[in-house]
């Protein structure tokens, strides 16, 4: 059986909150990834069995490779003007808001103010360090590798394992799989596999889910990846680091679509000796920075210090409101300051 990592008192509180609520909204961080979508939709499928009026609202669109997820067609995307009024009303009139897979209100981007202003009771379910206090109930377990796993644990602890249907199980598995790179990092905890065992018994086709997520790329994306590795990857052997950058023009040249650059940041880590990898993408309004590492190199500290971001030790992100050249300079000047963390 699974260890009871979520405090009994919190499980009871949340069970009561769900029972008392009629209108429930589930929100995720901007740029929802597999875990954000898995946790939100997994929870949504469960809440639907409870006959609650429930909506998943995300600040910005998920990548295309997640749109097969059961329930994804029903989510509201706040950044789309046609969804905003409906989303504002749902958030304002909600009795209960679940904030999943993020630890700070600013990760809600343009949705932050409405969520904070809502009179709804708020519950955070997350696995990032240092949760901020913008909710009534906080479930925060940074040592658990995905929020989707926490959703599974929470549903079970509330006594509702029997309500986990196939769609719910598929979403939870997707989140667990994507936040561990297909169980290649942060994935040594044996109970992960107890949960997978249960999910498979519920009928998930884990091989199919892997294909849905990792084998549905466009030819444009593959060419963009090739271009990045051949032309755009800079290696800094003395700092065991690598950097890939993409400008607006380059993205356009490869018909960039949402999510096309997902995973590029991980690739340089497979070079022998490279333990820190950074990817920068020039968006219309900012530079999006993604950081990854192996071992104990603290990407979240680096992200916080130089790019106003944060995240996990080995996977974090941030933003820069400079030019791409300046962001690169900031990165390069940061490297010597982090030499102490190299292996
Ligand atoms: P990604 O590079 O895939 O966008 O993000 C990796 C992880 O870094 C996310 O799961 C999240 O924990 C964190 N992260 C990404 N962007 C930001 C950001 O702007 N601020 C903070 N605090 N964390 C971020
Ligand atoms: Mn996550």
Automatic annotation (TrEMBL):
GO molecular function per UniProt? nucleic acid binding
Q: Domain DDH, which positions? A: 23-176
In terms of domain of life, where is this protein from?
Answer: Bacteria
Xref: InterPro entries: DDH_dom (IPR001667), DHH_sf (IPR038763), DHHA1_dom (IPR003156), Oligoribo/pAp-PDE_c-di-AMP_PDE (IPR051319)
Tell me where in this chain the DHHA1 domain is found.
253-333
Q: Could you tell me what this protein is called? A: Phosphoesterase RecJ domain protein
Q: Which organism is it from?
A: uncultured Paludibacter sp
């Amino acid at each position: 059986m699974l260890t009871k990592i979520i405090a009994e008192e919190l499980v009871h509180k949340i069970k009561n909150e769900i029972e008392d609520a009629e209108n429930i909204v589930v929100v995720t961080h901007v740029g929802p990834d597999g875990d954000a979508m898995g946790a939100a939709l997994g929870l949504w499928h469960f809440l639907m069995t409870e006959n609650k009026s429930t909506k998943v609202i995300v600040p910005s669109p998920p990548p295309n490779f997640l749109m097969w997820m059961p329930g994804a067609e029903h989510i509201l995307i706040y950044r789309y003007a046609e969804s905003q009024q409906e989303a504002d009303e749902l958030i304002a009139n909600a009795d209960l808001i679940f904030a999943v897979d993020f630890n700070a209100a600013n990760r809600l981007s343009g949705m932050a103010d409405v969520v904070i202003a809502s009179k709804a009771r708020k519950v955070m379910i997350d696995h990032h360090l240092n949760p901020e206090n913008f909710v009534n109930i906080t479930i925060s377990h940074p040592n658990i590798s995905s929020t989707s796993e926490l959703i599974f644990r929470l549903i079970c602890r509330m006594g509702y394992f029997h309500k986990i249907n196939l769609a719910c199980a598929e979403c939870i598995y997707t989140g667990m799989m994507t936040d561990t790179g297909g169980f290649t990092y942060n994935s040594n905890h044996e109970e992960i596999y107890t949960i997978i065992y249960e999910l498979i018994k519920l009928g998930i086709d884990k091989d199919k889910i892997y294909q849905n997520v990792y084998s549905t790329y466009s030819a444009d994306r593959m060419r963009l990846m090739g271009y990045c590795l051949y032309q755009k990857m800079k290696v800094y052997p003395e700092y065991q680091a690598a950097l890939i950058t993409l400008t607006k023009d380059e993205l356009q040249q490869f018909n960039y679509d949402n999510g096309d650059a997902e995973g590029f940041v991980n690739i340089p880590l497979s070079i022998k000796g490279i333990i820190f990898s950074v990817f920068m993408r020039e968006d219309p309004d900012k530079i999006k920075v993604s950081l990854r590492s192996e071992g104990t190199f603290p990407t979240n500290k680096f992200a916080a210090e130089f790019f106003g971001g944060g995240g996990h030790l080995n996977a974090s992100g941030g933003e820069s409101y400079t030019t791409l050249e300046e962001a690169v300079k900031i990165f390069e000047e940061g490297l010597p300051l982090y030499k102490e963390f190299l292996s």
